[in-house]
Amino acid sequence: MSQIAVYPGSFDPVTRGHLDVAIRAASLFTELHIVVVHNPAKTPRFSSEERVQLIKASLAELNPRKSLQIVVDTLDGGLLVDYCRMVGAKALVKGVRTTVDLDYELPMALVNRDLAGVETVFMPADPVHGHVSSSLVKQVADLGGTVSKYVTEPVARALAAEANTRKQKS
Ligand code: PNS
Question: pTM score, two decimals?
Answer without folding.
Answer: 0.96
